[in-house]
Design a protein that fits this description.
Pfam family, one (chains A, B): Histidinol_dh
Oligomer: homodimer
Binding site for NAD(+) (chains A, B): 144, 205, 228
Number of domains of chain A: 3
CATH architecture of the largest domain in chain A: 3-Layer(aba) Sandwich
Protein name (chains A, B): Histidinol dehydrogenase
CATH class of the largest domain in chain A: Alpha Beta
Distance between the termini of chain A: 86 Å
Largest interface: A-B, 124 and 124 residues
Binding site for substrate (chains A, B): 251, 273, 276, 342, 375, 429, 434
Catalytic activity (chains A, B): L-histidinol + 2 NAD(+) + H2O = L-histidine + 2 NADH + 3 H(+)
Strand content of chain A: 15-25%
Shape of chain A: globular
Largest sheet of chain A: 6 strands, parallel
Chain lengths: 443, 443
């Protein structure tokens, strides 16, 4: 069965409206989920471990196991020996691949730490006043890892390693184990990434435990990592008590191609996004109509080989598009409108086009940079801004696990000049105690 | 009437519980405000300018003016000539103070831009693969400025200048003018800060106009600046469509003093926080009980001189505290627990204590560094994390108006090694299109 993929032409009068309709995505707000998450959070806040235990036994069906439900949250912790055993139990080639990916991700983020101002700064003014900024890591971070099918060891690496590189003292991972089933590859990734403690809890109850702390689960300062609708909702609600990362939307890829890349490669790149999720979005921009037809032919030839073809077909049919553009310059303009999570620039001399891109989570330059390489092991983070949020937000990074403090050391001489300015403005704002506080330091 | 200020002693058995009770603050969630904000946002999204006009005429009582209500949103825009006129109309000493403050804030943030990794980075691996990070400014930013009494020109500088320094192309300011009354000092600050366009609209309707755009108000990529409960609620709701800054809680100061600073100075510093708001919090830590008594005496002597004494009295009575600590080391430990917005370290050699502080929005070192200097003109930003969020967040800065894109340019040789690693892990995660996408690039 052929895939009917949407075709757009940027020369059409209503192209912009068609593009907007293609991109439109509203995260559904479900009042029942909202209410359930709020109730679970309140219960965890009030009852601590007992509430976490009840919800975990219930939602993960632990009572139905031969050994019955858990009787303490301590039983739900997985110790370091078990993590190391999971790592030791991997097939050698898989273990090597995971270790290689971790090493490369660590290397990139160490470079990022060096380059993103982690040392802070300070400077001294002529009157002796010192101004600056101190940068410190967060004390303790929680990483949420989904259970079941969507459990991705690569996500454990991508969330934990930047935190470690930033200098976070303790990383607490939570991962639900529905029916008590553990994912060995996820546990092995936790071992490699240096996660400090792992609890097999999930859902809003795990978010609550991390945010408020319980007798067994220590409270964290920030919670990162993807989850289902209950988890997303709980994270939004605890924001302020702890920090959170972005709430991710469906994953997207935008490919700009000049028409000279093997069309099978491009088709497979579009599949690799589409296979994630029926809501995922794959779009190709090209100035060559004949090439778009060749990619479409590749799509229809290759789809039947794909184990996840049903998901791919639904995603490409409902949310995919092949877009004919006037030229590469226009392709870059459209890319800036879309502000894609992943942008492949599959051309010769891709840097010339990358220089024109203002908004993208990650750019993959040249014909060999398939997004899949970045998803696993190139080094940069695969947690990226979705749904046009690359207009204002960034890949997960070392900076997400650091915070800054301003440093102000005013000299006696500085207090004379600054004090007069501050007092003048404070009186202007009607804040007399501010003014007097400055004036008391005047000689 | 003497102020009865709470006294705590860190040697008390239940000190930690007393401290927790002192710090406890829950932002009230008002379902009626939630619903009103949501309804206004939906209406602005649907009806654009017409909705903005209706709400502005209604909530800011513009129909009651002699000239009646506004008939278009364009009428609510204040042009550059009017901003320049507001600046020209200031008393010379006030204009000079505002200009001096703006210059110092700009200088600090330019230094911050240099030091926070704004240049991005890239590095080339032995096989020719290039990895890096590109840093770009946001395109367009909205600044919300409250109207009426809480209109602070210093906040205009603190929000707009970092955006300008970051390279934001267009800054749109919104400021409500209840009863049509404009605050000339706020408009003058907008002129000095280089704000591009100003609309006299406020409330949830202004947040909606900035987030969604209307025929007259262009959509922005991020909204910053403080507002009332409706504004805070609207900002939370549009988060995702646009970026937002932190939702600020009541302002706080923590003073650590060794007992040798003039007690009047410390009393006035505590007042300067307390005068903001009845919910503001001022706490003093000192190892010298006699000194705490002297500060208390100063408080009771100085309070009657303060025009805002009623606010100060309520704030200090309900939320203030004088805390006796064992020694300066313990004071630093307690400061890390509190993670204060503002921390004064009023001692000799304050750097030795600052080195022990992990969590604070801004640190004011030495006896001359009163918080008021930082509020107006020292240079660092006065928009700081409140309510213990300094554990995971930072002062507003240039970095809040920039975002990063990962750059991945894999060479043909790199695609061979990375492709095998990626394929191995992708098969492990059951994502075969990812694996095939990597494998197609293998020779």
């Amino acid at each position: 069965m052929a895939i009917t993929i949407r075709k757009l032409d940027s020369a059409d009068a209503d192209f912009r409206a068609q593009l907007s309709a293609l991109l439109a995505f509203e995260a559904s707000e479900d009042a029942a989920i909202e209410q359930a998450a709020a109730q679970i959070l309140a219960d965890v806040k009030a009852r601590g471990d007992a509430a976490v235990l009840d919800y975990t036994n219930q939602f993960d069906r632990l009572q139905q196991r031969p050994q019955g439900g858990a009787t303490s949250v301590a039983q739900l912790e997985i110790g370091q020996p078990e993590l190391q055993a999971a790592l030791a139990g991997l097939a050698p080639e898989r273990r090597l691949a995971l270790q290689t990916a971790a090493d490369r991700v660590r290397l990139y983020h160490e470079r990022q730490k060096l380059e993103c101002g982690s040392a802070g700064f300070s400077y001294t003014e002529p009157d002796g006043t010192v101004l600056g900024q101190k940068v410190t890591p967060l004390d303790r971070v929680g990483i949420y890892v989904p259970g079941g099918k969507a459990a991705y060891p690569s996500s454990v690496l991508m969330n934990a390693i930047p935190a470690k590189v930033a200098g976070v003292q303790e990383i607490i991972m939570v991962v639900p184990t529905p029916d008590g089933v553990r994912n060995e590859l996820v546990l092995a990734a936790a071992a490699i990434a240096g996660v400090d403690r792992v609890f097999t809890i999930g859902g809003a109850q795990a978010v609550g435990a991390l945010a408020y702390g319980t007798a067994t689960v220590p409270p964290v300062d920030k919670i990162v990592g993807p989850g289902n609708a209950y988890v997303a909702c709980a994270k939004r609600r605890v924001f302020g008590t702890v920090g959170i990362d972005m709430i991710a939307g469906p994953s997207e890829i935008l490919v700009i191609c000049d028409g000279s890349t093997d069309p099978d490669w491009i088709a497979m790149d579009l599949f690799s996004q589409a296979e994630h999720d029926e809501l995922a979005q794959s779009i190709l921009l090209c100035p060559d109509a004949a090439y778009l037809a060749r990619v479409e032919a590749s799509i229809n030839r290759l789809i039947e080989q794909m184990p996840r073809r049903d998901v791919i077909r639904t995603s490409l049919t409902n949310r995919g598009a092949l877009v004919l553009v006037r030229d590469m310059d226009q392709a870059c303009e459209i890319a800036n409108l879309i502000a894609p999570e992943h942008l492949e620039i599959s051309t010769d001399n891709p840097q010339q086009w990358a220089d024109k891109i203002r908004h993208a989570g990650a750019m993959f330059l040249g014909r060999f940079s398939s997004e899949a390489l970045g998803d696993y092991c190139a080094g940069p983070n695969h947690v990226l801004p979705t749904s046009r949020t690359a207009r204002f937000s960034s890949p997960l990074g070392v900076y997400d696990f650091q915070k800054r403090s301003s440093m102000i050391h005013v000299s006696q001489a500085g207090a004379q000049t600054l004090g007069r300015v501050a007092a003048e403005l404070a009186y202007g704002e009607g804040l007399q105690a501010h003014a007097r506080s400055a004036e008391l330091r005047l000689k």
